[in-house]
Amino acid sequence: MSTASLAQGSAALAAGERQVYIARMADEPENLTLVFLRPLDGKMDRLGEDMRDVKQRLTAVEERLAGVEKSVAMVHGDFAGQSRRIDRLESRLERIEQRLELRDA
Questions:
Q1: Cα torsion 94, 97, 101, 104: sign
Q2: Does the residue 68 lie in any domain?
Q3: Per-residue pLDDT of the chain (105 residues; tens, 9 = 90+)
Q4: Nearest CA to 5 among 24, 29, 30?
Q5: Global pTM?
Q6: Which of 18, 29, 79, 104 has the smallest C-beta neighbourhood within 10 Å, fewest atoms?
Q7: Is 73 domain-assigned?
């Protein structure tokens, strides 16, 4: 606050205009506060937009991960099917060896 403002404020107090001086003082911090809050408001808007973008990207990643999990489950199913087929072939081979007496028992 400048000395001219102080002088005016003192003169206002001396002249009995206390309310005008108090009102003027209350306006200044409010305006100063708004000056600092407006850029913050813009930054908050940008953060909100960024957060929406991050959520969309995270959803896309989760969907891709679900697809990968399905693919892995299918591969495990294929391995289980192949193991069953190999087990059946081993069983058949053992029976054939027994019939032909090819086993070393």
A1: negative
A2: yes
A3: 455 554 455 544 455 555 555 555 555 556 888 888 889 999 999 999 999 999 999 999 999 999 999 999 999 999 999 999 999 999 999 999 999 988 765
A4: 24
A5: 0.50
A6: 104
A7: yes
